[in-house]
Amino acid sequence: MNDIVEGLWQAARLVVTLDSDLAEITLRSLQVTVTATAIASAIGLPLGAWIAVNRFRLRRAVIIMLNALMGLPPVVVGLIVYVILSRSGPLGVFGLLFTPTAMIVAQTIIITPIIASISHQAIRELWADYHDLLISLHATRRQRIATLLWDGRRALMTAALAGFGRAIGEVGAIMIVGGNIDHATRVLTTAIALETGKGDFGLALALGFVLIALAIAVNLALHMLSGTERGSRW
Amino acid sequence: MMFKTALAAFSALWLATAAGAEELKMAVTTSFANSGLAEVLLPEIQADTGIEVQLLVVGTGQALKLGEAGDVDAVLVHAKAAEEAFVAAGNATHRREIMYNDFIIVGPSADAAGAGGAGSASEAFAKIAGTQAPFVSRGDDSGTHKAELAIWKSAGVEPAGDWYRAVGQGMGAALNTAAGMDAYIFADRASWLNFANKAGLALVFEGDPALFNQYAYLPVNPEKHAHVKGDAAKALEEWLVSEKAKGLIEGYQINGQQLFHFNAEAM
């Protein structure tokens, strides 16, 4: 219990004094995860919509695969990305291992299935409502997907936020591919693991509280910008 | 306005990861990183040589693996036999001893096994095994783990059973585990002195020469991996064996105790 109080106190102190190390790793956490979420959304949202409006032979299998991949173990993704990006691996010439880029790649792989699955589910229900209308307007396939993505934007934001949430708190994969290098690839979650290893639970908890606050702040900001959850609307 | 400032800071950080001074990636052991010596040395290295050393903190086993794959430019570890095999395999150009510190045996402050009264490290281990007192092992193929296994061997004990718990984690995590179950553990002095969660543990045995822990620097062979920064690795080695490095290493203290002894020889 003492550790938790100490952690809260330290968190407050770090934030109020604008600790430069804290600012650096917090910004890097955001940089990596926001980029990964943006890329994963660019792939996952259209993919989810495409699967919802198209009928093809392996559709059911693809949906099942996507749902199953939501549970991809980060540590395995990390290991695979590591082996591929290592100097002795197939993409070793780019020298990407132990850089933020490698962390973005790993997180993108982890959250794309989540975003695709949730958006597919949301779009499918919307498609049931819009089907007759869009068909009668002779909308092309591209126009249908664009309409559905736009009208389903609130549900799709939830999909993106679910991906963001998974990525921002993830430690297994980015520890392996990033290496937790001070001033290069250290982010909030890997710093927490490091401080726990040093037995400094107060600081580890403080970083944990900052991480939770960050996740809440990002969600709040997005909701305010998109104008959802207003009092006048159900 | 706030938004613009935040955006500027954000994009600066985005770019900062791409550019920068000459970077050199060095794999080091957890025991070295936990000692805190790196925080003293790295800024001085950057000021003197312009090299920004990026540390990858892993166990000795993984550090050598990173060097073998060419993912780092140099390695600083402490497991002589493995290091010599590493050089023999052509992964490093040579092995240069830099400094040493020592291992200690940590245990419950009551010391029920009486390890503190032993005459040697292997006798202390034999006593712990004899009473089947809980013992936490790193179990991760690190330099510390290898040193621990060597002492079990010299004690003539095959460590196995309920009392012997291999956690397969770094020094800090293993110390946390030992603190949680009031167990004996084999640790390096630096990690122990810097460890904040000592709980009911205390240092029970130290001083046996068998516990000396030699650190060596191994520059990864540029002939094997063309992208390795051989010149920077050489400049770093020259700095590490310099008089200035000697002063900083010997002068580094935690709670008034000197941790590392410089013993690099001129080549």
Mind sketching the topology for me?
The complex is a heterodimer of chains A (234) and B (267).
Chain A: H1 2-16, H2 20-53, H3 59-69, H4 74-85, H5 100-136, H6 141-151, H7 153-168, H8 172-178, H9 188-197, H10 201-226
Helix pairs in contact in A: 1-10, 2-5, 2-6, 2-7, 3-5, 4-5, 4-8, 5-6, 5-7, 5-8, 7-10, 9-10
Chain B: H1 2-16, E1 22-29, H2 30-35, H3 37-49, E2 51-58, H4 60-69, E3 74-77, H5 80-88, E4 96-108, H6 121-131, E5 135-137, H7 143-155, E6 164-166, H8 171-181, E7 184-188, H9 189-194, E8 201-205, E9 212-219, H10 230-240, H11 243-251, E10 253-254, E11 257-258, E12 261-262
Parallel strand pairs in B: 1-2, 1-3, 5-6, 5-7
Antiparallel strand pairs in B: 3-9, 4-7, 4-8, 4-9, 4-12, 10-11
Describe this structure in words.
The complex is a heterodimer of chains A (about 230) and B (about 270). With about 230 residues, chain A is mainly α. Chain A has one domain: MetI-like (MetI-like fold, Orthogonal Bundle), CATH 1.10.3720. Chain A has ten helices and no strands. The longest helix of chain A has about 35 residues. Chain A is globular. The model of chain A has no long low-confidence stretch (mean pLDDT about 90). Chain B folds into two domains: about 130 residues, Periplasmic binding protein-like II (D-Maltodextrin-Binding Protein, domain 2); about 110 residues, Periplasmic binding protein-like II (D-Maltodextrin-Binding Protein, domain 2), CATH 3.40.190.10. Chain B has about 270 residues and is an alpha/beta fold. Chain B contains eleven helices and twelve strands. In chain B, the strands form two sheets. In chain B, strands 1, 2, 3, 4, 5, 6, 7, 8, 9 and 12 form a ten-stranded mixed β-sheet that branches. In chain B, strands 10-11 form a two-stranded antiparallel sheet. The termini of chain B are far apart. Chain B is globular and about 55 Å long. The interface between A and B is medium-sized, with 27 and 32 residues.
